[in-house]
Design a protein that fits this description.
The complex is a heterotrimer.
Chain A lengths: L2 E4 L9 H5 L5 E3 L12 E3 L10 H5 L5 E4 L1
Antiparallel strand pairs in A: 1-4, 2-3
Chain B lengths: L2 E3 L18 H14 L6 E5 L14 E4 L5 H11 L4 E7 H7 L1 H9 L5 E6 L29 H4 L5 H5 L5 E8 L3 H19 L4 E7 L3 H4 L3 H15 L3 E5 L8
Helix pairs in contact in B: 1-7, 3-4
Chain C lengths: L4 E4 H11 L4 E4 L6 H10 L6 E4 L3 H13 L4 E5 L2 H5 L1 H9 L4 E7 L15 H5 L10 E3 L4 H18 L2 E7 H5 L1 E4 L27 E2 L6 H21 L3 E4 L6 E4 L2 H16 L4 E6 L1 E3 L3 H7 L5 E6 L5 H8 L6 E5 L8 H11 L4
Parallel strand pairs in C: 2-3, 2-4, 4-5, 5-7, 6-7, 11-12, 11-14, 14-15
Antiparallel strand pairs in C: 1-8, 6-13, 10-12
The chains are: A alpha+beta, B alpha/beta, C alpha/beta.
Chain lengths: 68, 251, 353
Amino acid sequence: MAKIIINQELCKGCQLCVESCPRKIIAISTDRINNRGYRPAVLIDETRCTGCSSCAIMCPDVAITVER
Amino acid sequence: MAIVFKKPHALTDIPFHYCAGCTHGIVHRLVAEVLDELDIEGKTVGVAPVGCAVMNYDYFNCDIIEAPHGRAPAVATGLKRAMPDNVVFTYQGDGDLAAIGTAETVHSATRGENITVIFINNAIYGMTGGQMAPTSLPNQVTQTTPYGRDVNTAGYPVRVCELLSNIDGVAYLERVSVDCVKNVIAAKKAIKKAFQNQIDKKGFSLVEILSTCPTNWGMTPSESLQWVRDKMMPYYPLGVYKDGVKGDRLK
Amino acid sequence: MSEKILMKGNEALAEAAIQAGCKFFFGYPITPQTELAAYMSKKMPKIGGTYLQAESETAAINMVLGASAAGVRVMTSSSSPGISLKAEGISYIAACDLPAVIINVQRGGPGLGGIQPSQSDYWQATKATGHGDFQLLVYAPSTVQEMVDLVELAFDKADEYRIPSMILADGMLGQMMEPVEIKEGHTPKVFDKPWALNGHKNSRPHNIINSLSLDAVTLEKWNIARYEKYAKILENEQRSIEYMTEDAEYIVVAYGASSRVALSAVYEAREQGIKVGLLKPITLWPFPKKALQEKVPTTKKFLVVEMSMGQMIDDVKLSIECQRPVEFFGRTGGIIPSVPEVLNCIKKMGGVE
């Protein structure tokens, strides 16, 4: 079991995590804008997350914490 | 469950001001992770450049000074000579290191100054809005090469690792990239080695990191990473350009 | 009591810095100052100090910025064109409220100029060493002994006020030899530097030394605070030396090498019955305004003697708010004014043929 926590206020919606996730389970939210005007990324299927940290490694804003 | 990946201690809590998808942020994290892993934050002094990364004095938890444009290696020399047992690193962009600061770069290398240089090569001046850099590629369109960089008038891009590789004061030169997970991991290894070299007093160590500028390149963050792979890597081959100890060729 | 020894100005400056506890010197060769660097390159290795010849004056001043930020006493020296190259670095050092000692052994200018002595960098030193609102403490020696004494004072005041200080000498003073006494082995004053970048050792928050603020309000706040410091300096640090001014009707104002010539002319004029005296500024910033103002009631005219086309004369007029006529005599290009020339000006000023 594993999961990621994406800090919604730090995220700038750059999508590098979306692209680097091997299981394609991160997406840009469509219903929320953070206080810096970005649509933050969200984990869309926690059950398939392996905690590989690819997303966190590619995140330029250190917005992702990974638990395993 | 345990936390397996989090913000390194050597980064402060101040959010980065960088544009969305700018890979400066990745390199900041790598440097901070290395400061944590080598447990040297308490004895490290950073030197910030003039450029997009100028405000990294807010982001690192070690002591840090902001240097005039191009002069970071000289400021680092003064710091290091004053405190030889401390770790001193500079973090510079391509304009800072390979245009105005070329002499400081070359001569801190010739002196075998025992410092670590983190060199961000994103082939453009970011902070000032996208002008040509000394590492801008032939035909690259920038604000000051609107018709593409014409090598006949604006000259050829400078390959810093190759330029410095014949300088005897150099211990370690490697060009890396942060365009994908595999390369980010390799980049961290290089950065860690560049700091370890300093601790082991091997001489001048520089890591050149191919990096992106989505805003001024006019691309999305992921298109920018692709541009690094398609256009920059052929001109700036990744790899080790020196790995030894200063003066080792003279023995 | 260390006895007097014959020493060249440039070397006396270096030795005095070492005696003041300076263990870091970053330099670059330029006539007429190079013996200072050469002396440092001989002496520093022997006392565990650092002598480093940088690739340029620009690099040298930035090494000073780094070493000063680490909290050590540090010095650089150059001559006129080299000081121009250090302008941005000096502005940073002032903006970061860092101490440092910068020596300018002036030569004829502008441009490549010449290598003979000059005082044509007065404005550069006191008005606009670099961009932005800032000042340097500027000391003007006129003898080798004063060079020695002012170097230690420059280090102490730089640390006390956290400000770069400059010794404004010239080629003549740098190249001449005079007997001099240097206090050896005394312990220099030590100043606490909690702001220094020497590694927080996990025992304090990190220190940041930075002069950038994109927020104008903050930048103005920094500048205003710095000018409150300058106000204290203006109040407490004005220094000058006076010769025969008690009953003087005319006063010559001159510093450094030109004050030596002026003093000889003053003596001769006195012998010819002219009541003239000399006021010799020791600090050029803060300019000795108080001393000059006190002279106004009893002084008919002032004569300013400089080795330039006239720069300090502005500060003399400003100090006395033009309440008295201020005449000028200057030689430039490296030519040192002669005693007869100055004497003639004094006689003309005093209405004596």
